[in-house]
Amino acid sequence: MTDAAIDAGDYRRAAAVLAAVDEEGQRDPRYTLEVADLQRAQGQFAGARATLEKLLAEHPDDPDAQLALARVLQESGKRREALDLVHGVVEQSAPDDIDTRLSAARRLAALRRPYEAQTLTDELASAFPDRYDVTAQRGRISEDLGRYDDAAALYRKSEVQERSAGVSPGPNGTPAQVALSDLEQRRDPSIEAAWYPAYKSGDEGISNYHAQQVPIYAQLPVGYDGHVFAHVDVVNLDAGTLSSSDSSLLDTLGTHAALTDSSTAAVASFHQHATGAGGGIGYRSDNLRFDLGTTPIGFPVHYLVGGVRYRMAGDDSSFTVNLSRRPQTSSELSYAGLRDPWTGAVWGGVRRDGLDVHSSVDVGRVNLFADVGAGMFTGRNVASNTGVTLRTGATVPVFERADMRSAPAWSAMHGTMRTICGSTLSARAAITARSAICRSVSRSNGRAAAGRGAGI
């Protein structure tokens, strides 16, 4: 009665349909189930639970009401209570009660118990091999388990059974057609392009930062399991123009000794800018991602980058490990490197070689997470740094509906940087500000590491 309106997110229309039901119709348990379903879709979990508990007080063995309550409990974060209810329904239902056991299988799948759901649907398929809805649900469970080829075969089989049973298609097709269409999207190729401008104010020629990046990304499917991808990134950076009259600046950079020698001529422009094109190739699937590429060629400093990431997921937890080399993009110095206009020496181009671990677990409706990362920061003619970061926090939903969820995250972060001032610029006697450069790069890398650590 209200399913189509709720699925479309039209809660006002669903409420109007329910309001039009007469008193006799409101005494039907199906009316109460639809009222509770509308409350659930609107995020009114306490109200939905109260409505269903009132119905169960009158009909304690109603499996539809029990499974509806299990759904409300699941979506409100009480997964253990929901699972106990579903197990009770399965134990009480007869082996040939197709509708109840199939609904229970759907709840088990939603509760991330795909193997239990698979046992139920396999038993139903053995007893009722021609039921299109059983076959389609077996396909959905295979999809949950990552067995995409099996899922596609089952959806196609269900389509044949639907035609034999005379199932009428909805706006988007029959249930099996919709499920297969959704699965086929995993095999869609794609190409994307964008333009990313960035601006950060600072000292001209040093920390001032104007960036424009045009990435082009393309991917091709490898069966249903994953995609190979390639990307090209065209980047333009501009830090502005160094001042030749700022004595404090000259004491900081490596130009001071050369500039005080009137016989020394500049070999490069005081305007600090860089343009280049980089890119890479890789593969990604549900659990694995790896890539290899290069920072933009044309920058004063460029090098190979890449990484491998693997994710493992359980019923209510996940664990991800990521080994990578990535550029530090917080400034032109750290990303592209800068060139001394008097000596032609280049320094910067800082990269992080690191290992990062992310873990999370659902506790009711709250998601707890923790990130740990350790890395070495190196570049050309700059001091090396090591860094360790730790971030932990929680995500708590404060507003939830079927088509909308607001969940602010609270987190705390700690980072430790250690500078190794073992090697800095040594090009000619002009480079005198060795310790100053070490301090400057340490501060820059520290900011970069903190920014990268927050996005593991």
Q: Low-confidence parts, pLDDT < 50 over ≥5 residues? A: 420-456
Overall domain count = 2
How far apart the termini lie comes to: 45 Å
Q: What percentage of amino acids are in beta strands?
A: 25-35%
* pLDDT averaged residue by residue: 84
Shape category: elongated
Count every beta strand, where a strand is a DSSP E run of 2 or more residues: 15
Q: DSSP helix count?
A: 16
Percent helix: 25-40%
Main sheet characteristics? 13 strands, antiparallel
- Which value, in Å, is the CA radius of gyration? 30 Å
Structural class: alpha+beta
Explain the overall architecture.
33% of the residues are buried. Helix 2 packs antiparallel against helix 4, helix 6 runs antiparallel to helix 7 and helix 7 packs antiparallel against helix 8. The strands form 2 sheets. Strands 1, 2, 3, 4, 5, 6, 7, 8, 9, 10, 11, 12 and 15 form a 13-stranded antiparallel sheet that branches. A two-stranded antiparallel sheet has the order 13-14. The C terminus is likely disordered. It is built from 16 helices and 15 strands. The longest helix has 20 residues. The protein is of the alpha+beta class. The chain folds into 2 domains: 184 residues, Serine Threonine Protein Phosphatase 5, Tetratricopeptide repeat (Alpha Horseshoe), CATH 1.25.40.10; 201 residues, no CATH class. The radius of gyration is 30 Å and the shape is elongated.
